[in-house]
Each structure stands twice: as C-alpha cells, then as structure tokens.
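Input.
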Amino acid sequence: MPGIFKNKIKNERSLFNEMMKLTEYEEKASVIIKRILSCPKNIISEKEKLKDVEREMDEVIFEIKLSIVEGAINPSLIDNILNLIEKFDDNVDTIYFMSREINRYFLYLNSNYRDTEGICAFYSIINKMIDAHMENINLIRKMLSSEMESEFVVNWTRIIKIEEEMDDLKDNLLDEIYEKANRLDYLTYLHSVEIIHKGDDIIDTDRDISELLINIVETIIK
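Output.
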C-alpha cells in the first residue's frame, strides 16, 4: 500500500508535523498534573506551571491556525483540522481546570484542619487515567507520523480499548463515591465526582482526536 501522503500536497504532511507540537504540550501538562495528583506541598507553583503551558500552547495554536488560513490546505480538510486543534487545546484546558480545583480543595482542607490521606488515595487512582492519557498521546503521535492507513487503524483501535478500560475505572470510582456519600462532606463529594468526570473527559477527547485523524486521512486518500 502506498504512503498516505504520496503524491499529496506537502502542506498536509507538514501540518501533521505541526500537530506533534501540540502533543508535546499535552505531555508537559500531563506530567505536571501527575505531580499535583501526588499531593505535593507546592500545588500552587505546579498550577502556575500548568498555566504557563496553557499560554504557550495557545500561542502555538494561533500560529498553526494562521498557517492554515495562509496555506494551500485542501478545503475539505479544514473543518476537521480546526476541530482537531481545538480538541488538543481542550485537553490542556481540562488539565489546568483540574489543577485549579485541586488547589481550591486543598485550601479548604487546610483551612479546616482536615486530613488529606483519603483524598490523596483517591487521586492516586485518578492518576491511572492520566497514565492512560499519556499512552494515548504516544498512540496519537504514531498516527501523526504514520504513512500507512493500516497503522492509523491499529493505533485508533488501541485508543478505543483504553477508553473502554477507563470507562470501567470511572464507573467503579463513581460507585464507590456514591456508596460513601453519606460519610463524605458535601464539598468532598462534589470535588471527587468533578475530578472523575474531568479525567473521563480527557480520555473521551483522546478518542475524538483519533477519530478526527481517521476522518482526515480518509479524505486525503480519496
């Protein structure tokens, strides 16, 4: 089977290369949120590092969008490509949101002299979602660098499997939270459910990214 980009406009290949930069920011954000979920003493400074990552990524996204407007991209690809860029941005925004929520929750715990052991054990499970997200990032990178349609499908299939595994983890966590609801204070209950859903949103967005890549490739090879 010939490469996907053989005899295609080189701008489409170079655009995929530009998308690699966005995965780098996703990885940076993921490493930071993993540290935050490990309950460090410097949550505020880690949150500020995430804010910097988000800002830098926004600048790169602006440049990529500008290159799309000025470039010779196939018009039939533009909507999916812009949607793809927004999905990468959504994940970093979600991770930053998580950091802010965790920081607020720890301020609440500290101001009320509450123990952090229980919530830190909970965060260690959420970290499994971030680990899955980081695996997805690597799979998405493989899709972005691939020249063969079959390689896209293999990596997309693995991302779907990871989403199914994380759905099971999410459901188990929610079941546990609901079972403990009468023993949790209201803010802890809300915080826990929110963090679970945000972790799930990240994994769902990974799948969206993989499916958009499949759609883009199908358009390219027509």
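The domain at 10-221 is CATH 1.20.58.220 (Methane Monooxygenase Hydroxylase; Chain G, domain 1).
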